C-alpha cells in the first residue's frame, strides 16, 4: 500500500544539506565552526577554574583600597635598584626621593605621615563646639585644647604664670633678687627641693615612680631610678664647652633666665656650673648597655635599710627616710610612712654615688640645676618667644627646630593627658569596628605559627620549650580601644579628679602634672578607678608589656599602610602582621624572656637553654653592630642596646610570613594581584614590611638615634631582618652571597 501511504515525495527525500542555497551552506559551516570554538573555550575555562580552584583568579583586585595600595607600593619602590642588592633602597628608594623633611622636624617616616593624618582628625573633633549634653570628660578634653590654643591669653599673662611655681620651690637662684628669685641659702633642704619638684612630675636627682612589683604582681611598689639627663645622651656631655651644642644648651638657659630678669653674666656663670654638675651626674648613671639584665635593676630595700646602703647628708639636709616620707606626704596623698615599706632601687650605682657627687657642689648650683629641670620642661608652655629659644637649641641638637604648628602641639597635649576622651571621639568617627575581629583573627594565626616555630627549634630543651609555649598561650591582647570609654559614666568617673580651666593653660598643665603624681602614689595603697587599658586609642604604635604579658594595638595603627580590611592579606600580614609577631617576640627577647607567663621577673629557663640563647644572641649583636649608617658618616649601630628590637623584628617577620602562607594554603590559591603591578604576593609581603618603615632624617637625628635609640635605623631593621630569612631570598630569587642573601644567618625564634 505504497501509494496510499503518506510519505515524502522523491523530491522531499533529497539530502537536506544539498537542498540549501550556497549562502545558507556557507553560513551553516561558519556557525558549526563557531559552536565548536565556543565549546573548546568553555572546556579550557572550566579546566583552568578547576585546576586553580577559583574562577576570578586572573582579575586584579579592583576595590578602592587595592587601587590605592597599588599606587602607594609602586610610588615607594625604586625599580632601578636590584632588590637582592639592597632591599631597603629598592622598597623605599621611591618614597625617599618623593619626600622631603619638613622644616619643623628632623625626620619623616611613613608612620609619622600616618600620625600627622590622625592629628588632623583629632584637631577636627576637638575644634567642634561643645554640644548640649556633651559628657564632662569630653568637655575637659575640649577645654584643655582650647586653653592651649588661646595664644592671646598666653601673651597677656606672660611669665607671671610661672612665678608662683618658682616661689613654691623657694626661688631660682639664677634670677638673683628678681621675682621668682630671692633664694636663701640658709633655707636650703635637698629633701624639700627634690620633693617639691617631684610633685610636678619632674625629676631632679631622683626619679620616683609607682609600678607593679616585678616579683609580686599583686601589689604596686615605689621604684627609685636615675632621672636621665636633659641632653639625650651621655656622650653629649663629653663635648668641649665651646662646641656648638654645649653653647646652644647654655644659651637656652641664659635666654630663659634673662626673660625672668636675670643678669646675663651671672646667668651664664650659673649655667656653666649647672652643666658641670649635670656632667658629673651623667657619669655616675649606669650606661644603657648595662641596663638589660632586669635582675640587676631590681634591688629591694625597706625604707629602714636605705640609710645603711646609700649615703645621706646632714649638710644637705637629706635622708632617704625623710625623702620617702615627704614624698608620701604630699597634698592629696598623705600616707604615713611604714618602716617596712619596700622600695626598689633601679640604678644602684647611681644612688650610691648621688650624695657624694652633690657634696662637691655649692647649694646654689644644686638648686639652680633642680629648678632648671622643671623650667626646661615648661619652656614650651610659656609665650611663643620661649618656644623660639627652644627651637634654636633643638636645631643644633637635631638639625631642625622641632617647633611644630601650635595646634599639633595642643592635640598632643590632649592625647597625653586626656587620651581616652579624645580617643572616644576618634574611634566613633574614624574606626572601623570590623578591624577588631580582623586583627584578632590575624593574632590567632600568628601565635599559632609562633608555637609551630617553637616546636621546631633545636636549641631549646624540651622543658624550657614547654614553658615557652605556655607563656605564648598566656599572652593577652588588646585591640583598638577599651570598650569602657564608650560608657559615659565610666569615662566621667575615670576623670572625676581632673579639673580643667577653659582659659588658663599654664595652670592646667601644672594641675595635670601634679594629678599624675598624686594618682601614681595613691595607687601604692588604694585602688583608684582605672580602665584596664589606658593607652590613647589614637596612638599610631603597638606595644608589648612584660608585666602584663600583653600585646596591644590601638585603633590609630589599624589603618593603611599597616592594615585595611579590603587589602590583600599579603599587605596586612607584611604590615600589621609583622608588628603583631614583633610584639609577641618581645615576650621572648633578651629582656622579655626574663619574665614568666604571669609577667613576673622569674627565671623559667634551664641553664642550658639560657647559655644557648646567649650564644645565638651574639650573632645578632655582631650582625647589627657591623652595620654602619651612610646617613651618619658611617657611624655604627649599637648591637647591644638594639638587641631586643632586632630579635623582635626577626621573629615577627618569620611568624607573620608563615601565618600568611597558611592562609594561602587554606584558601587553596594565591590572592588576586594588585592592579597594574607585576609583583607576586610573597614579594608584596616583604615590600610592605619595608615600606611601613621608610624614613628620611637629618644627619644629627641619625646620630642621636644611633646613640640612644632602642631600634636600629629603619634601613637595618629591613636589611638585617631579611638577610637572615631564606624565604625572603626565595621570594626575590636572590643569589647566594648577594648582599641580601649572605651565607651566614642569625636566627633565634
Ligand atoms: Zn619593639
From TrEMBL:
<dbReference type="GO" id="GO:0004222">
    <property type="term" value="F:metalloendopeptidase activity"/>
</dbReference>
<dbReference type="GO" id="GO:0046872">
    <property type="term" value="F:metal ion binding"/>
</dbReference>
<feature type="domain" description="Peptidase M13 C-terminal">
    <location>
        <begin position="541"/>
        <end position="748"/>
    </location>
</feature>
<dbReference type="InterPro" id="IPR042089">
    <property type="entry name" value="Peptidase_M13_dom_2"/>
</dbReference>
<keyword id="KW-0862">Zinc</keyword>
<feature type="domain" description="Peptidase M13 N-terminal">
    <location>
        <begin position="83"/>
        <end position="481"/>
    </location>
</feature>
<keyword id="KW-0645">Protease</keyword>
<keyword id="KW-0482">Metalloprotease</keyword>
<dbReference type="GO" id="GO:0005886">
    <property type="term" value="C:plasma membrane"/>
</dbReference>
<keyword id="KW-0378">Hydrolase</keyword>
<keyword id="KW-0472">Membrane</keyword>
<dbReference type="InterPro" id="IPR000718">
    <property type="entry name" value="Peptidase_M13"/>
</dbReference>
<dbReference type="InterPro" id="IPR008753">
    <property type="entry name" value="Peptidase_M13_N"/>
</dbReference>
<keyword id="KW-0479">Metal-binding</keyword>
<feature type="transmembrane region" description="Helical">
    <location>
        <begin position="26"/>
        <end position="50"/>
    </location>
</feature>
<keyword id="KW-1133">Transmembrane helix</keyword>
<dbReference type="InterPro" id="IPR018497">
    <property type="entry name" value="Peptidase_M13_C"/>
</dbReference>
<dbReference type="GO" id="GO:0016485">
    <property type="term" value="P:protein processing"/>
</dbReference>
<dbReference type="Pfam" id="PF01431">
    <property type="entry name" value="Peptidase_M13"/>
</dbReference>
<dbReference type="Pfam" id="PF05649">
    <property type="entry name" value="Peptidase_M13_N"/>
</dbReference>
<protein>
    <recommendedName>
        <fullName>Endothelin-converting enzyme 1</fullName>
    </recommendedName>
</protein>
<dbReference type="InterPro" id="IPR024079">
    <property type="entry name" value="MetalloPept_cat_dom_sf"/>
</dbReference>
<keyword id="KW-0812">Transmembrane</keyword>
